[in-house]
Amino acid sequence: MATGMIVKALSGFYYVQTEDGVFQCRGRGNFRKRQIKPLVGDEVQFEAENKTDGYILDVFERKNELIRPPIANVDQALLVFSALEPDFSPLLLDRFLVHIEGNGLKAVIIISKVDLLTQTSLEEIVIHKKLYEKIGYTVLLTSTSNSNGIEEIIPHLRGKVSVVAGQSGVGKSSLLNSLKPELNIETNAISTHLGRGKHTTRHVELLQIGDGLVADTPGFSSLDFVDLEAEDLSNCFPEMAHLSSDCKFRGCTHTSEPKCAVKAALEQGEVSESRMKHYMQFLDEIKSQKRRYD
């Protein structure tokens, strides 16, 4: 018996990476009865007489699991947003960040196409960059040139399993091709009519890039807040999460409650007005969803 990580799942086969190479395996027959479905990213125990005829015997406990894309044991998300075409959207970025925080992942924010901006627009992007860095996020700026800024991403991949997510049409597959040109991942041009691109990847695979593994399929295809409770939302805003314990009431939603530490920080400029606005918008969305379901 041996252990390894599933790096690809395709047509009922699981491809397990070990120090001795990749082994093609099938799942054990009783997995279905036990309601176990091996996922890309799983650490597994398997046995194989050769590289093409193995069986997965056990799936080790996961630290997390994403549904879309179906992948386990993810460390971080590379959030790719463009500065232009489509325009940078702090609202959409905060929506992605809530999902990433809710799944216990680290986020690396990548803002592309900054070389296409006017000086005034570039200054606005730098203001956003400083805001998110103050919160604690890593923010990297890249240009349309394949080499400019791309090399800064490589160190952040080291020793980690990453998924790529972000705005549609910003070139997530192009980014992976820039990081590792021999991948030659299929890309589709952005639809100018719809303002969004098409997903071209059809299965999940972890690709070796630098000293890390990166999923070649877009992450977080659904951004609804169906699994998030209203009282847990502020935990997905790091600058609010550490203040919540100072609020007078446990479970404070930082809206109308008295002696709220988050509202006090907002007045002092320690919490940004734009982030607070997005928090309130998401809170209303969660509450309205719960009312519909109830």
TrEMBL record:
Entry binding sites for Zn(2+): 247, 252, 254, 260
Keyword check for Cell membrane: no
Annotated NCBIfam families: ribosome small subunit-dependent GTPase A
Chain's gene name: rsgA
Protein function: One of several proteins that assist in the late maturation steps of the functional core of the 30S ribosomal subunit. Helps release RbfA from mature subunits. May play a role in the assembly of ribosomal proteins into the subunit. Circularly permuted GTPase that catalyzes slow GTP hydrolysis, GTPase activity is stimulated by the 30S ribosomal subunit.
Alphabetical list of Gene3D superfamilies matching this protein: Nucleic acid-binding proteins, P-loop containing nucleotide triphosphate hydrolases, Probable gtpase engc, domain 3
Identification of the protein by name: Small ribosomal subunit biogenesis GTPase RsgA
Cofactor: Zn(2+)
Matching PROSITE patterns: ENGC_GTPASE, G_CP
InterPro entries, A to Z: G_CP_dom, NA-bd_OB-fold, P-loop_NTPase, Ribosome_biogen_GTPase_RsgA, RsgA_GTPase_dom, RsgA_N
Binding site for GTP: 112-115, 166-174
Organism in which the protein naturally occurs: Halalkalibacter alkalisediminis
Membrane-spanning intervals of the chain: none
HAMAP family to which the protein is assigned, alphabetical: GTPase_RsgA (MF_01820)
Domain EngC GTPase: 72-221
Keywords attached to this entry: Cytoplasm, GTP-binding, Hydrolase, Metal-binding, Nucleotide-binding, Ribosome biogenesis, RNA-binding, rRNA-binding, Zinc
Domain CP-type G: start-end pairs: 63-223
Enzyme class (EC, first level): hydrolase
Subunit record text: Monomer. Associates with 30S ribosomal subunit, binds 16S rRNA.
Cofactor binding, note field: Binds 1 zinc ion per subunit.
Pfam families in UniProt: RsgA_GTPase, RsgA_N
Keyword Coiled coil included in the entry's annotation: no
EC numbers for this chain: 3.6.1.-
Source species, domain of life: Bacteria
Subcellular location: Cytoplasm
